[in-house]
Amino acid sequence: KNNGMIGNIYSMGLALQALEATRKFYAPRKWDCAQAFSVVFAHDYQLPMAIAQVLPALVGRSYLDAAGLDCAATKDASPQRQLPLSLTLGIRGVPRGITVRYSITNMLQGKHFHYSTVVTVPTGSTLLQVMEAAAEENPQIFSFQVEQTSWGPYVTSIHGLAGSTEDRTYWQFLSAGNALDEGVGTYKPKNWELIQAVFSTY
C-alpha cells in the first residue's frame, strides 16, 4: 500500500522478514524499507504472536537466521535497529471519553437487518470494549460471541448470526468503508469514528 503497509498490521512482521531475507533476489526493483518500518514503529503492538513476528525484522534478522545463530558470539551484540517505545513501554494516553458510532448489518442470509448505536467509552478503548458497551446497553440487538485465538479474540457471532466455514461467511469490520487492519481486541477507534460490522462472504 502507498503508506508502507504490507497486507495488514498482523502480516507486517513476516513480510518484513521475507523481504529482508530475499533482498538480493529482487534488485534493482526496490521496496521502500524505511516506509514499511515506519508503519511498524508507529504501531502499539500488544498481541504476543504479532510481537514475535515483528521483533526479528526489527533487529535485522529473520526466522531463517535462527538455525545458524551463534548465541555465545552474539550475546553482547546490540540490535541493528532501535525498538519503538510503544513496543517496549506500552505508552498510554490520559484516559478520557470518546464517542463511537457502531452498526451491524446482515444483507446476506436469513432475515436481513441493520442496527446502529452510539456509545461512549474511555479513550484508548478497543473495538471489543465498544462492542461490549453496545451489548450492555441493548443486549437483544448487539449481543455477540467471541472465540479466543493466539491472535486475540475472534468474533464468531453478532445478533445471533454466526459465521461459517461451510458457507464461507464471517463478520467483517470496517471503518469508513475500509477493512480494519487489526482485530477487535487491539483496534482502538477514534472519537466519532463509524465502525461497521458487516456479515460477509469470502
UniProtKB/TrEMBL annotation:
Belongs to the eukaryotic cobalamin transport proteins family. It is found in: Secreted. Coiled coil: none annotated. Pfam families: Cobalamin_bind, DUF4430. The gene is Gif_0. Cyanocob(III)alamin binds at residues 8, 53, 154-155, 180, 202. This is IF factor. One of its GO terms (cellular component) is extracellular space. One of its GO terms (molecular function) is cobalamin binding. InterPro entries: Cbl-bd_prot, Cobalamin_Transport, Transcobalamin-like_C. Residues 124-192 form the Transcobalamin-like C-terminal domain. The keyword Cell inner membrane does not apply. The keyword Ion transport applies. One of its GO terms (biological process) is cobalt ion transport. Keywords: Cobalt, Cobalt transport, Ion transport, Secreted, Signal, Transport.
